[in-house]
Every structure is written in structure tokens, then in C-alpha cells.
Amino acid sequence: MLKVARVAAAGTVLALLFSACSTTGSADKELSKPATSDSAIDAASSQAAEVTAAGQQPAEPLGLFSPVAERWSYLPAAVAGVTVSPDPQAEVAALEQLREELATRPPASGADGYTRVSEATPTRFMDLLIDVGRRRSLNPLRMSRFAAMLGVAGHEAVVAAAQSSVAPAKTPAQTDKALAKPIPGTDGWGVELPATSLPPEIVAAAAMQTVACSALPVECPRFEQLGQVARDRLIASGGVWPSQIDAGWNLGVSVGTATLAYANQDGAAPWTGDSAGAQDGSWVPTPGMFAPALEPGAGSWRPWNLSSGSQFRPPSPPQPGSAEFRAAAEQVLKVGSNLTDRQLRIVRFWDMGPGSSTPPGYWLTDVADEALRTTDVADQASALAVLSTAMFDASVAIWDSKYTYDLVRPVTVIRKDLSPQWLPTLLTPPFPAYVSGHAGYSTAAAVVLAQLIPKRGEEFYDSAAEATDSRVRGGIHYFFDATGGVTLGESVAASSLQRAGLAPSEKLKTVGERLEFQSADVGTQARS
Predict the structure, then answer these.
(1) With 80 as the cut, is the pLDDT of residue 78 above it?
(2) Which InterPro entries did the record assign (predicted)?
């Protein structure tokens, strides 16, 4: 459940919601653990038989994408699959040694007290990335950029794994039943073990670890732990030989390297400096922070699915000094000065400022990862790629609009012309107003997720509208920032879905139609 508005017991609910938004250290052993849905599983694997006997539910594909080996690529040249020819007789001793070492050392999973453990799947890597970004106070642009790189690497990896070929050979379990016995402390069940291609989990883990360690090298040990989990699970599974594990890992490293090579040419070099001198009606640093402009060049970064950040640039907002602009500012003053307790809770929940997961991270982990956790590895990876590239493209498109129009924030106008001592409920962030980032991010995410998980479409759309309205109530956006951001987010989402051969749902009332603040006439009567 996403909407704060749907819950009555505010104190308890907020504690739960904020806990859900920020904790990745909690163990989630209670979650349903995905087994494999691949019909090519080696039925002779005793590990697979144990999973079935234990009553574990198999992971299920989303049923939306094309066959894995035929899926799209985000790279100019996709990394090709490899051919592996296991030699059981020659590899028995090596596997026995790996299993002995695994049985005598502490498990890699969860040793840092933060990593969410059980499977080293794409959702786990995304969880960890957003947690790292939150703790290091990444801004939403950098958060979405790293997430998209990670999502693309995972997607490209599972496609390369599916395109790989493994020569027929007896599995370890078929060769010696002792090679499939459970190893204490290692979660080896539930690994997807295709009979004729490489296990997707190991390839995706290697690719995502490679990207994460390059993007955030200080945090590399935490990602290496998850990568070790992927190796350990395969060693314990009794389903693959060391040559398959090594080939899968090396292929993943190649995918991660190729992803980095392309992504690092997007123009997102660190920016240093200050904003130019502002003219009347242009953005200026605002009370509370008085910080310089954040990432003013981000609108020129290269997106993943759009031709450029300006592809869907919205029309100009009302001009400062016009009657329409003044009415919008007056609306912000009246609405933002008369919040009910419930509205205040909603505004604060959706704040997601510095030190939080930020809007892209919230939608990627607290919403998407939880919804995708029992999906098979390939569809996890592809779904996260569609969503994460939409989040990054939204960043670029939103920032293109913000710095193209350079519109002054409500607090500046209100304190100058309407109420000199007024301050909004929320701290105004250090960048121009038009369009609203929360509106763009939340709408793009909701439109993508409603297609990936249709049964929750209404929930996603309602939550996006609630997040968007909260920025007007919080006193930091005009209504046209909100409506413009929603429209932009819809276009970005459609482009991301189109890349995957999908389209937005036509059955749902749009996010824009669900907004409360669609004009300056809404909520302008102050409460007594």
C-alpha cells in the first residue's frame, strides 16, 4: 500500500512507512523465495527436488516480454553469449574443494549488517545500491543515473546468459549425490539452473557488481558480498560445474564493462560552479538552504530511451507578473498555510529530500523491488531496466525543463509580493520550479509499473497523483509545475515501455485526471 492517505492510524503508519522507505538492513527471510520457472531445469538435480518437496513456490515470469534471448539491447553492440563445455570427470575435484571451503567459512551474505540477503538477484543489487545512495545523500539525478546503469547491466547480462550455450553433460548431482548435499549456512536452493544456457543469477550478479564497484568504489565490498552470494549459491546447488560458474562470472564482467563504457559517455561529468545572475522572475537560491543551483547541466545528459532531454520539453509556464502566475502563487500561499494534520503527514511522507532514497530510489526499491521479488531473474532484470532507465530519462527531461525556463520558486514570489515572513512547510530544493520533479518521476514510475504489474495499476496511479499534489500543498510548486511534470512523465514512460515492446495502459484514468490541483481555482478559500 503506497498512499499515506489510505491509512488512518497516523503515528503507527508513519513509523512503518518511513521504516519501509529507508531500511535495507532488515532481514526478509520470511519472503517467498523464488525457485526457477525455466522448463529446461535439470530434473535430476537433487537440489531442485528438495525445493519442490519443501513446497517452495516457483518464480513466475511477468508474461510481458519476448523470450529472453530475443530481448532488446540498450548498448550500441550487445555482448554476445559464450559456449561452455563442462568436463565432469576433470571438474569433480575442483567442485569438491569449493564445497569444502564454503562449508568451513562464514557465509558471505549479510556480514555487514545492512545487506538484504537470501538471493543475489537483480532486486537485491538494486536494493543495496539505493541504500548506499541514501546513506551517501546522492541527489535524485545521480541516484537515477547509477540505478539505470545497474538496471541496464542486469538486463544485458540475462540476455547474454540466455544466448550462451552449455554442452550436454551430467550435472554434479548426477555424477555424485554428495555434490548436491545442503551446505550449512548457504542458501543454495531456488537457483535457476537452465540445462542448456548459463544461470542468469551469476551473470547478472557479476555485471551489476562490476558497475556498482566502478560507480561507488568506496562501497564495493558490500556489492562484492552479494556477488559472492551468487557464487556460493551455485556451488551449493549441485546443478553446475566450476567451468559454468567461471564462464558466467566472466561473461557478466564483460557485460558490466561494456555497460560502463557506454554509460560513462553520457555527459554527466561532475559540475562545479554557481548559477548565473538571475533576472526578475528567474530562479534564485531560496530560504532554508540558499544553496547554489543543483546540476544545471543535467538536461544535456544523454538519456537511454529519448533522443535528448528536450524531446518532450513542455510549453512555457505562465510568465511572472501575469494574472495567471499571480493566481497560482496565491493558491500556494492559501493552500500551504492551511494544512490539516492528515495533509501535513502526506506532505512530509512524500518529501524525500537529502538523505532519503529520493523519488527514483523510492519507486525502484520500496515499490518495484518488493513487487518483483518473486519474479524470475530474467524478468526482474528486464523490468528493473525499463523502470530505471525511465527514472534516469525523467531526470534528464525534468532538468532540461527546469533550466530552460529557470522559473522562480513560490517562496521567493510570496515573500516579495504577498507575505514577507511566509515559509513553506517543505524546504525548497535548490533548483528552478518548472516542472515538478516529484510529478515527473512518480508519473513515469506509475505508468511503467502499471504495465508491468497491472493488478496494482490503480494503486500506482493514485500514489503518483498524491505525491504530485503534495508538492503544491508543501508550498514549493505551482499547480502548473505539477500538471507539466505529469505530462512529461507520461511521455518518458511511454518511450521506456516502447523500447521493451510495451505501451502504457489505456484502461486507467490518467495521473493528471486524478490530481486535485489542476488549476489555480482549487483550494483557494482559506479555512476558518
Answers:
(1) yes
(2) PAP2/HPO (IPR000326), PAP2/HPO_sf (IPR036938), V-haloperoxidase (IPR052559)
